[in-house]
Design brief:
about 40% strand, about 20% helix, alpha+beta
Length: about 160
């Protein structure tokens, strides 16, 4: 696959297992307030890849009635960050950059799938790509991002 994951890749990854239990559900149990507001539905998540479905709402649009570029970037940033969190690393990662291309409009009630994948996971920097795709297959936006390890130690996932 070309992805180089240097993390625990077993079923011992409690964060990945926790998120996999949310597949098919709105992200209301998500730890991120932004993810809760975006209100996506988790479609799939595995080590190094993730998909979330979103429906464009009026409060996500610009004055022209299309998905605001800042919201498209927020969706992409949130999904790549969550995917990196699910790698199970000991320390948190934060975005160093987020390069977005806005390719086609989306309007209210459009269903979009956000896709994220790890391209390369090094010890300190993880390079990722994301896509925001209309249900028709038309690409709305895409991104690349580099995330860098922080000194923030991620707390254990609570057992339910």
């Amino acid at each position: 696959m070309g992805t180089h994951l240097n993390s625990s890749q077993s079923t011992d990854n409690k964060r990945l297992v926790f998120l996999q239990k949310l597949i098919g559900n709105p992200m209301v149990e998500h730890f991120s307030p932004v993810a809760k507001w975006l209100n996506g539905k988790l479609v799939s998540i595995e080590e190094g890849a993730m998909e979330v479905e979103y429906v464009v709402r009026e409060d996500m649009c610009n004055p022209m009635g299309t998905l605001h570029g800042g919201i498209a970037a927020t969706i992409l940033d949130d999904i790549v960050g969550t995917m990196v969190y699910a790698l199970g690393r000991e320390f948190g990662f934060t975005s160093v950059n987020l390069n977005c291309d806005f390719l086609n409009p989306a309007v209210i009630d459009d269903a979009l799938i956000a896709k994220a994948k790890v391209i390369r996971a090094g010890k300190n920097i993880i390079h990722v790509e994301g896509q925001l795709v209309h249900e028709s297959g038309r690409m709305v936006a895409k991104c690349t991002s580099n995330l860098i390890q922080t000194a923030f130690k991620i707390p254990e996932v609570p057992s339910h």
